Amino acid sequence: MLVAGPIERATHLLPQIQKKRTFDYSNAVNGLKQILWGLFKKIVIADQCAQYANIIFNNSGDYSGSTLLLGALFFTFQIYGDFSGYSDIAIGTAKLFGIDLLRNFAFPYFSRDIAEFWRRWHISLSTWFRDYLYIPLGGSKGGTWMKVRNTFIIFLVSGFWHGANWTFIIWGLLNALYIMPSIIFNTHRDNLDIVAKGKYFPSVKELIQILITFSLTVFAWIFFRAKDLHHAINYIQNMFTEALFKTPDFSGIGFSKKIFIILFLFLLIEWLGREEQFALSKINSKIPRPMRWGFYYIIVFAIFYFSGTEQQFIYFQF
Predict the structure, then answer these.
(1) What mean pLDDT do residues 219-228 have?
(2) pLDDT exceeds cutoff 60 at 2
(3) Is the pLDDT assigned to residue 105 strictly greater than 70?
(4) SS3 of residue 143 by DSSP
(5) Buried b (16+ CB within 10 A) or exposed e, 189-208
(6) Which pLDDT does position 263 carry in this prediction?
(7) Which of 75, 107, 128, 265 is most buried, by the most CB atoms less than 10 A from its CB?
(8) Mean pLDDT of all residues in the chain?
């Protein structure tokens, strides 16, 4: 967790280590559920998506625009399942020992604007940049120009933090550009609560906002995944052709349509549990025990079934 997150402050973590802790059954059960969901996100979602994303990105010149779009989508779910899955495993494991770690992800792909996305993605790093870079630079006290300047600095540093490659710099600057309208028009704190709170479905407006935000994020992830700037530009040029609207070409990918079913079920579970700390928190004692345990067994079975395609955690390289 010191390498990839959640990034803990000494003032929050050390007192918990120093004090006497006793075993808490309910907290341990909650921790085990979070570990289980983290393993599912890593092994079933991230590692399966990684197979297709790697083939498509590594051979991007061989595929049509629609297939390249799928590659970007697969990487989008890979990086979320990989990193948030790791965070869930770390947080859940800490709960077993009576230690409370900071939440690191809060369903970012359900965000309605980029500002909300960054409040929900890698929360511990975002708050660290805010407290130790954005605020010391003057924060939001110096007017719009200072807010714009400081925001660009934050995202530029975030790009450098991920690596000395122009792809990461462009990725950071893209996100800075995305967030600019909300900074200039002071709407960056309009969406503080989770979308459609207390409801099963979002409004049409919220759905459109989510789709736009998600699309912008997918586009930016292309630069994050590409091996260099030339690769990223070629990938985008080949994607935005008339072939973007044709049936994807799955030759040489070893593609299975079950990945779409898995992703649909994953998003459904995440959506239903979006008001909780993590998706499986929604599964509680109010649900009959046979249904609860049946659901857990299905997840465990899926983890073992898909465990043959191990992939390294993405953020261990940073």
Answers:
(1) 97
(2) no
(3) yes
(4) coil
(5) eebeebbbeeeeebeeebee
(6) 97
(7) 75
(8) 92
Instruction: Show the tokens assigned to 108.
Output: 């970012």
**Mean pLDDT of the 82-89 span:** 95
Lowest-pLDDT choice from 4-8, 23-27, 102-106, 232-236: 4-8
Q: Are 113 and 213 in contact (CB under 8 A)?
A: yes
Catalytic residue among 162, 188, 230, 231: 162
CA 271 from chain centre, in angstroms, equals: 14
Coil, strand or helix: which one is 118?
helix
Question: What was the pLDDT predicted at 289?
Answer: 87
CA dist., res. 135 & res. 132, Å (int): 7
Which DSSP state fits 130? I
The question of whether 122 is a catalytic residue gets the answer: no
Q: Tell me how far apart the alpha carbons of residues 68 and 243 are, in angstroms, rounded to a whole number.
A: 10
Residue 113 makes CB contacts below 8 A (sequence gap 6+) with 182, 187, 188, 190, 191, 209, 213
Cβ burial 108-139 (10 Å sphere, 16+ → b, else e): bbbbbbbbbbbbbbbbbbbbbbeeeebeeeee
| Longest Cα–Cα distance in the chain | 64
Residue 107 CA neighbour count, 13 Å, CB half: 25
Single pTM value for the model: 0.93
d(Cα 194, Cα 142) in Å, to the nearest integer? 30
CA distances from 200 to 41, 277, 302 (A): 23, 18, 26
Angstrom distance (rounded) from CA 91 to CA 99:
8
Q: Please report where in the chains the tokens 């300047």 appear, as a residue.
A: 149
Which of the four pLDDT bands, split at 50, 70 and 90, describes residue 1?
very low
